[in-house]
């Protein structure tokens, strides 16, 4: 690795890694700003239980566990408590960056990890304020700490209000300037400015950047902001990982590797176990708990700051400080590997678990008669609800499977045939009649689970029609390879709806438009993904677009055609389109003669190519005909 050679502990090409780390922090700020844009305040409020209960339990249990363990090894209480503070924090920058790149921010384990990480960031300031008390080097009181925390909370609320209501107003004026450079500068100003403000009040840069992103998440300009900030974010964000490599002193670890590796393993095992317990207590399946636990197994970058302050106050000796530094870096470097293999670990462990909540809840009795030729809907989000509503209106039997406990309870209160369970589990799919189902609709935001569900469902029912909704382009080919019948990508479906409406403006018949849509979907959106369509498909599209069409035009009183004969109008020569029928008083005049006069209220049936009919519409509805 380049960074391992140029670092101060390597050949020393770069002596001051702090300069690189400063740029890296900007990259992290832009990354968290982008992640905030992916969410919104309303979506964040929906996971408040995860933030409060999940984050609170995780921090509390890790701090208590480490404190007790350190006391067993005869550490004094204050020093042991401080080590517990260090161990309880995980890396928001690393975890969210990996989830962002893997498209897993909106998955259950992505939301859980984000909620816990946000609570950890909020805990950073009280931990910092308590350090002088733990070291016995302050004359302050508990009241002063509470006052400082209250002041910080008020300041954060004020920042959120400014971000939510002032930023969109400024951004609107910037967008009107149509100056791309100005958009980039304002984006950087928003993210860095908010991060600096939260840092001034004692909170982390990352939290401030996330708040800035949240404030603009519901703005109509958020996609443009993401696009403008992407290049700078990726370039500077990579420096964060380079800076970690520059801090890594391999010679120190080689000198005495066994203790450091042992400490790292034991600490990660403790953190993984705590997160798994917490997530499971929040009534999530064991697979989701394992994914979350492995993602949060590292020590966070803000533990560096705590360790530096604590060391200066005498809470850590030099030897422990160096060991902690090495353990933290190793745990960070292991994070991508743990997240990479977490899905396989979760699936394998789940296969052998028989006593967990999801399987118990799945045993809810359903009407056996309805479990035949039915539709299975995986996910009771917006798409799942809409599908269920249509099926209910048409009388088609269906059953819903939902892993989110709140959505499950909402479905029960709505009177839906819904059960709680994880669709990746074969036993649960069997209980909801997968072998007798006609259609499976997978409407969840979890690419890992989606792929596993499709594979399992196809194996259990080879004749079932499987429809998958996804937000991620990378999944399309893989899902088709796993025998999904139809993959609906949200971004491309939006594009299809747009071009459909455009074609309608050019009087392309609905059946022709639908044929084009079917061609695009059948080829897996190849043309929209920048891939070359097969020659046979291209020839079909060309024949469709060059084919003739018919359309109708209602003659109003102000139309230039009103009161003129067909000969006077001379529509065929001027546009190429022909009037083949005139409908007057609900009676058709077929093959009208040149002397037939057009009257108000007539409906003209036009024949021609798409372009010719479009010209005819312009002539019939403007003063062009009089020129």
Would you give an account of this structure?
- This protein has 627 residues and is α/β, with parallel strands linked by helices.
- It has 4 domains: 18-351, Na+/H+ antiporter like fold, CATH 1.20.1530.20; 358-484, NAD(P)-binding Rossmann-like Domain (Rossmann fold, 3-Layer(aba) Sandwich), CATH 3.40.50.720; 489-546; 547-627, Regulator of K+ conductance, C-terminal domain (Alpha-Beta Plaits, 2-Layer Sandwich).
- Helix content is 64%, strand content 8%.
- It has helices spanning 2-6, 17-38, 41-45, 48-72, 77-88, 92-102, 108-135, 142-165, 167-177, 180-200, 205-216, 222-247, 250-255, 257-281, 286-295, 302-312, 318-351, 357-361, 382-394, 405-413, 426-431, 447-460, 475-481, 490-505, 510-522, 535-546, 566-569, 571-575, 610-620, and strands spanning 375-378, 398-402, 418-420, 439-442, 465-470, 486-489, 548-554, 578-584, 587-590, 603-609.
- The strands form 2 sheets. A 6-stranded parallel beta sheet has the order 3-2-1-4-5-6, sandwiched between helices. It has a 4-stranded antiparallel beta sheet with strand order 7-10-8-9.
- It is elongated, with a radius of gyration of 31 Å.
- The model is unreliable at 1-7 and 355-365 (pLDDT under 50).
> Average pLDDT, to the nearest integer?
77
For this structure, the CATH topology of the largest domain is Na+/H+ antiporter like fold
The CATH level-2 architecture of the largest domain is identified as Up-down Bundle
Q: Strand-residue fraction?
A: 5-15%
Structural class computed from helices and strand pairing: alpha/beta
What does the largest sheet look like? Answer: 6 strands, parallel
